[in-house]
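Subgroup meeting minutes
Present: P.N., E.W., G.H.
Scribe: E.W.

1. P.N. recapped why we're keeping a running log of single-chain structure predictions: easier to compare across weeks, and new members can see raw inputs and outputs side by side.
2. G.H. added today's entry (161 aa).
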Amino acid sequence: MAKWRDVKQNRASKEKEKINSKSLEDTILNSSIPSRLKAFITDSFLITTPIFYIVIYLIMGSGDDFAQNRAAGWGMIIAIHLLIIVGFLYIKRQTPGMKAYELILVDSSTQQRPSFLQIIIRYIATTFSIISLFLMFVPFFNKEKKTFQDIISNTININEK
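Output recorded in log:
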């Protein structure tokens, strides 16, 4: 009986439109997997590779010194990388690769700027996802195409408007 009343008073179609517009908004906001992958590869070349060479040749002295002190070398690389990536994400909400592909990082529940803790959790989860190869395939089995780091940190990359 209530259903008939909703249809008669034109409330049912409004609710259906809200549901359709919300699902349409989610598909527009979520960035595609290829654009996120391209942004990651761009960041690898623009940020990680120079850090790698600076640590090996300028700080450690040579490849042989790096080979003898791998733990210290990788510790420096990861620490510098963490500072740069977290700095970009906290200040601008995007890395250079994300900027190139017009992506921006937001809190998935509020669509606003993520907190510093969320960005740190995202960085740690991203590192863990890269190390354990099977976690890289999470978006292919997830309906919303969220990555492991998106799920853990409650953030998401969206298309910049």
